[in-house]
Amino acid sequence: MMLDEILQNRRSIRNYQDKPVSLVTIRSIIKDSTLAPSAGNEQPWKYLVVSNKAMLDRISDECRQNFIKRIAANPGDPAKKYEKMLQNESFHIFYHAPAVVFIMGETNVKNLVADCSLAACYFMFLATSKGLGTCWVNFATAISNPELRNELGIPANLKIVAPLALGYPKKIPAIHPRKKPHILNVIE
Ligand SMILES: Cc1cc2nc3c(=O)[nH]c(=O)nc-3n(C[C@H](O)[C@H](O)[C@H](O)COP(=O)(O)O)c2cc1C
């Protein structure tokens, strides 16, 4: 696939085929995603792969509940607009994707969010080039239950930056219209 085709086809996928993604494929995407740039070439990204359905269901429930609590504690929370959706018990934050890859790193890394986001961007494009779909699921940054974090192997000093649902799309949706680029100035 050429880059322009990858850019067109990389859409957030919320409808997946009931078909597993092989670990070989996931490992290869992860490896190539580390070609992303990082501040000071620190490469602070760490990856967690979860394809166990029961575990993904548990994470979905945990994060849904945590977001509901967060919104109740602060009605001005920007996530308020998703409250109804989150209250629906059948809402699965990963849209039943067969796998989720979490990209994270140590909280004390200065440019952690930028570095992990770049790796995530590479990951999403690589997945697209292999006919896979992804969706960055911010709700899944809210895993706080220490027992669950322990089972997943996420120590307290790691911050989840990019949880990426991964699977074969049922269909690639049309592109949401983009705003005209706001170019402040062109100084020639
Ligand atoms: C930081 C970030 C967080 C996101 N969180 C969610 C999320 O929790 N759930 C979801 O369905 N989509 C999420 N998305 C996907 C966006 O909704 C999506 O990228 C946007 O609507 C544009 O659509 P496109 O990705 O198909 O171009 C997130 C995207 C980004 C970059």
Describe this structure in words.
Helix 2 (23-33) packs across helix 5 (112-129). The chain has a domain at 3-52 and 92-167: NADH Oxidase (3-Layer(aba) Sandwich), CATH 3.40.109.10. The longest helix is centred in the middle third of the chain and has 21 residues, at 53-73. The model has no long low-confidence stretch (mean pLDDT 98). It is globular and about 50 Å long. Strands 1-2-4-3 form a four-stranded antiparallel sheet. With 188 residues, the protein is an alpha+beta fold. Helices cover 37% and strands 14% of the residues. It has helices spanning 3-9, 23-33, 53-73, 83-87, 112-129, 146-152, and strands at residues 46-50, 99-106, 133-136, 158-167. The structure holds flavin mononucleotide (FMN). Flavin mononucleotide binds next to strand 3.
Main traits of this protein?
188 residues, four-stranded antiparallel β-sheet, 6 helices, globular, binds flavin mononucleotide
Q: From the 3D structure, determine the CATH topology of the domain at 3-52 and 92-167.
A: NADH Oxidase
Side by side, the strands of the main sheet go: 1-2-4-3
Secondary-structure element sequence? HHEHHEHEHE
What is the count of β-strands? Answer: 4
Distance between the termini: 35 Å
Coarse shape? globular
The count of helical stretches stands at: 6
Which residues sit in consecutive blocks of at least 5 with pLDDT less than 50?
A: none
- Could you give me the name of the CATH homologous superfamily of the domain at 3-52 and 92-167? NADH Oxidase
Structural class: alpha+beta
Write the CATH architecture name of the domain at 3-52 and 92-167.
Answer: 3-Layer(aba) Sandwich
What percent strand?
5-15%
Instruction: Work out the radius of gyration.
Output: 17 Å
CATH class of the domain at 3-52 and 92-167: Alpha Beta
What's the mean pLDDT score? 98
Question: Helix amount, in percent?
Answer: 25-40%
Largest sheet: 4 strands, antiparallel
Name every ligand kind in the structure: flavin mononucleotide
